[in-house]
């Protein structure tokens, strides 16, 4: 990643290693704050899936498990492919960074496209909470709560995906100009942490939105 | 490359286990598989143990505050009990309003 040589005395870092480790630690600090952002959503799910269990489960049963499972597989693969870009960056293989980075970005876009198809189906079926909400009966309140959670959580996750794809494309652009070498590939590593975190959040959202309460 | 392929394979197997557990109706098994998937990502893809010590401290700090958030936030709804009020049932408020006016 970097050597231990001394940097310019005007730099706030003692060595290149210190600079790179600060960047990595800074991203982990940001991800810790992101965990608390999504933690609020998970808390909503934890509480209402217990207090409004029947309606919540009715909502879970209406989600499209096939699209959810395929999207999970796509995101797992995207994260693995980008981790290959991180390994290529550490070897100084800029062409590898571009190749694997673009692969991960395309898979990320496929995830968003499938999510768009799913949202389209749900809007057509009037599953967006409101006066025309499709589910009726004594559990409709709980189901509407579930779909409020569903749309907010998937929107927030989707926004993180869009940012992640933008960051990957930025890394690919830098790599195309030969920016990375065995001594410095920190941006590739830092973006990899963010992309894996987005994957990690989906690994928790998928069971909450599609699996728990389905049977 | 081998490490990444192994992690990917583990994640795919855990996804299959989640789907099987859902089909069998084992909600707890789904939760366990989800937590294992998170661990595979954090240890295999994000390689937290190879990162600087400060990163580990930040990650553990985030986990600690997340636990506080979820535990304190859900405490009321998981511990509140509904106790029935003894004595005769209360009069129907809607019926009373109709009679009154």
From TrEMBL, chain B:
Keywords: Membrane, Transmembrane, Transmembrane helix. The chain crosses the membrane at residues 26-45, 54-75. It comes from the Bacteria. This is Uncharacterized protein.
């Amino acid at each position: 990643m970097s050597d231990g040589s001394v940097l310019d005395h005007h730099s706030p870092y003692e060595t290149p290693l210190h600079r790179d480790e600060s960047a990595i630690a800074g991203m982990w600090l940001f991800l810790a704050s992101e965990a608390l952002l999504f933690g609020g959503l998970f808390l909503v799910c934890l509480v209402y899936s217990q207090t409004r269990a029947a309606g919540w489960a009715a909502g879970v049963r209406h989600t499209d498990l096939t699209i959810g499972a395929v999207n999970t597989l796509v995101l797992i693969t995207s994260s693995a492919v980008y981790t290959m870009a991180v390994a290529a960056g550490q070897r100084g293989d800029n062409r590898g960074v571009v190749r694997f980075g673009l692969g991960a970005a395309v898979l990320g876009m496929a995830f968003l496209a499938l999510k768009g198809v799913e949202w389209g189906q749900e809007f057509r079926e009037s599953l967006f909470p409101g006066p025309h909400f499709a589910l009726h009966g004594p559990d409709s309140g709980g189901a509407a709560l579930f779909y409020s959670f569903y749309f907010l959580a998937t929107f927030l996750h989707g926004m993180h995906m869009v940012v992640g794809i933008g960051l990957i494309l930025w890394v690919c652009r830098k790599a195309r100009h030969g920016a990375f070498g065995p001594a410095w590939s920190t941006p590739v590593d830092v973006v990899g942490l963010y992309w894996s975190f987005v994957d990690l959040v989906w690994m928790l959202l998928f069971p909450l939105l599609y699996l728990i309460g389905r049977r | 490359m081998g490490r990444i392929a192994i992690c990917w394979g583990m994640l795919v197997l855990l996804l299959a286990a989640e789907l099987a557990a859902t089909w069998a109706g084992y909600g707890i098994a789904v939760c366990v598989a989800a937590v294992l998937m998170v661990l595979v990502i954090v240890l295999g893809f994000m390689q937290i143990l190879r990162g600087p010590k400060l990163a580990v401290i930040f990650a553990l700090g985030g986990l600690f505050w997340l636990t506080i958030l979820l535990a304190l936030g859900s405490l009321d709804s998981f511990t509140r009990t509904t106790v029935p009020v003894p004595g005769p049932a209360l009069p129907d408020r809607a019926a009373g309003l109709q009679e009154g006016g």
